């Protein structure tokens, strides 16, 4: 999550994130905070963090104009997740804008340690990995004490948006999509080269960099260009005064981005964010059962080998699903809230038979397939198309409508890459370096990525 919305979110990833387009009269559901021995109920506000998490161990109450750490002036809100709120702030010491992430008091400071490692200074003689610039650089980290506890915080360079919110039901121009796919893969390559598995690759966690001219704006100029922060008073259902553990107003997240179809090649500057699930397999065991990647992007070994350690191949599976979404309109597996077994059935539909030992252990199999592998009568209508047909339905059909169709030679190379990244057995998947060396990456994605870098300078 730096930046725009760099964290895990509690809504369906098939839906766009809320922006400032809310009508008055949207207070319908309830949020709550435990105070003493009773629960305080709040009127629900659409598009903001869960208000019930303003309690001991939860969010830190922040208002526009606050100064944190005697340095960071709160300018606007960029987003929130289950474990943090994220703010655009002005660093009053260096006079530049930074993203400030404020974690819940009960969260573990794992992400800060990972970003410190990825951002560590290099010896003058050391070669710089080309993907280093595609992950957030940790600028500062500190703690803030508040009514809900002690909160770890860090700052990074801000970004304008995440790919999910700008591409939902939209298409990137093909040259832009190729460049974004290559840049994301390069970011993963850098992460792996430093000994880390990202652990949560999907488009909510892929951001787009802001232009460097952003820092030229004063706060007044920023508000003139993007509008004043939009706030909504927080109220209790019983009409009583708010406790000190919650702010007086909720802030609707600011949208700094542009939508996918409006992107030019110079905008294709991705940033892989949210390292809260990252781990170093050489020194830390992360079992499959502890994988928190959303099911649509989660490697199948997490389900079928729950007691086995995850490794770099789990990122490759998730990376393939992200690349597919960047190139097309429809995700390769359902991003709706569906049972996990239904995602497994879709994987078989698209990719073919899974390993026989997994097939035998799959308890939910009978709801979707007969013993001979044929779909059950009840599932037949919902069966997903095989890979090549899925490409036609989820990618090519939509590109054809806008006159941006993928040619047959590129399609062949692309599907070959996706199939090898989505091998069921993790040991049979490509490594990230092999992905970068693949025909599609070298022949189609890399040239556009190079052009994006030239246009951005």
From TrEMBL:
EC number: 2.7.11.1
Catalytic activity: L-seryl-[protein] + ATP = O-phospho-L-seryl-[protein] + ADP + H(+); L-threonyl-[protein] + ATP = O-phospho-L-threonyl-[protein] + ADP + H(+)
Any one Gene Ontology BP term: regulation of mRNA processing
PROSITE patterns assigned to the protein according to its UniProt record, in alphabetical order: PROTEIN_KINASE_DOM
Keywords: ATP-binding, Kinase, Nucleotide-binding, Serine/threonine-protein kinase, Transferase
Any GO CC annotation of this UniProt entry: nucleus
Domain of life according to the entry: Eukaryota
Listed SMART domains: S_TKc
One example GO MF annotation: protein serine/threonine kinase activity
Record-annotated Protein kinase domain positions: 72-441
Broad class of enzyme this protein falls into: transferase
Protein name (record): non-specific serine/threonine protein kinase
Source organism per UniProt: Aspergillus indologenus CBS 114.80
